Amino acid sequence: MQGPTIKRTEAGVQVLVPVSGQQNATATAQPPAGQVVWPDAGTACKGNQSLLWPGRFSTQIKPEVLSAPARTQLAAEAEKAVKKAPAPVATLKSAGQTDKNDPDFAASRRAFQDADNAANLALGFRILGERKYLAQATAILLAWAKTNKPTGHPIDETRLDKMVYAFDLVRCEMSEQDRASVLGWFARMRDAKLAWQYGEKSQFNNYRTHQLKLLLLLARALGDSATYDKALAEAAAHLKTNIDAATGETLDHKERNSLHYQAYGLESWLEIALITGHFKEPVLKAYGFLRDHIAKGDIHYEFAKSTAPIDEKRAKAGFEYAKKGGTFDTQKAVRALLVYQTLNGQDETPAMTGLLGGEVTPVNLFFLIRQQAWHG
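The chain above was modelled as a monomer; its predicted structure follows.
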C-alpha cells in the first residue's frame, strides 16, 4: 500500500469521505453534517491543528489550562526523559510471555519507555517551550523509524500509540526528510497490521481491539482514509462480539474472569471512541462495568475462573497481577478513567476520583494532560 499523498487546499482542510475503497476527496465547501473532516497535513500546522482529534485538541496547549501539579510533573518527567538515549528494538516481544527474565521481554519493556518519553517530551516542548525536548522527542521517533521492523502484532505494538501521539505534537517542527522517515515507519506498521492473521479466539478479544485502535491512529497520521474507513467498519462489527450491550462486560473479562482485562481492552475502546466519535454508548457501558466493580469493592476474584491456560502459567512464574483469586490493582484503571473523562467529562464517583490522588505514573501523564487540555 502506498503512503499518503499530501494535497494542499486554500481552506486548509481535507474532507475524507467515509466510503470504503474511495479515494480521498478534497473540498473547500463545508462538509455535510456528520462527515469526518481531517485537517490537511500540508496546512494543519498553520492552525496548530491535531491530525488525530481534529477540532477538539490543539497542538498549541496553553500552560494555564493545566493544573499546577500536572505542569510540575511534566517538567520533571521531561527533564528525566531528555537525558535517556533511545532504546529501539527491531522486534517487540511481550505478548504471551510467561518468563519475566526473558531478555527479549526485558528489552521490550524498556523499549516501551521510549514511547512514554517521546509523548512526554513532545508535551514538554509544546507546553514549556523547551526546544531540547523537541530535539529528544524527534531523536526517539527517528531511532525507532530506523530500527524497528513492525510485525503487526496487536499486543506487542499497542504501546506504540504514544509514538503517534508524539509525532502529532512535533511533526510541524520536523524537517521534511525526518517527517518522511517517521511516516514511512508508520506506513510499514499499518501494512503489517492490515496483513495480520488472527487466531480463532483473538479475532474476537482484546487483540482486535488494540489492533483497531492503532490502525485508526496510524490512518489519521498518514492521511489514509481507506484504512480508516476499513478499521471503522471492522470496529463496528467487533463491538457486537466484544462488549455485552446489556451489561458492558467485555469478552475478555468473561473468558479471563479478570478486571485487569476489562480495563486493558477498555483502554483501547475508549481511545477508539475518542478518535472516531462513534461507539460512545456501548463503550461507556463497558466503563460502567469496571467502575461499578471498583465502587462496590468487588475486586478480589482476579482470574479465579479464567479459561485461559496462560494465566496459570504467569501466576506460577511470579506475575503478581495474574495470581488466581487475587485483588485487582485499581491503579490499572487510571488510564481508562482519564480517557473516559476526556470523552465524557468528570466522573464524580468517589471510588474513581480517589484513584487520582497525587502524581500519575509517567505512563499515564500524557492522558492526564490531554484530558485537562481537551476541556480547558
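The chain has three domains: 1-47, 61-196, 201-362.
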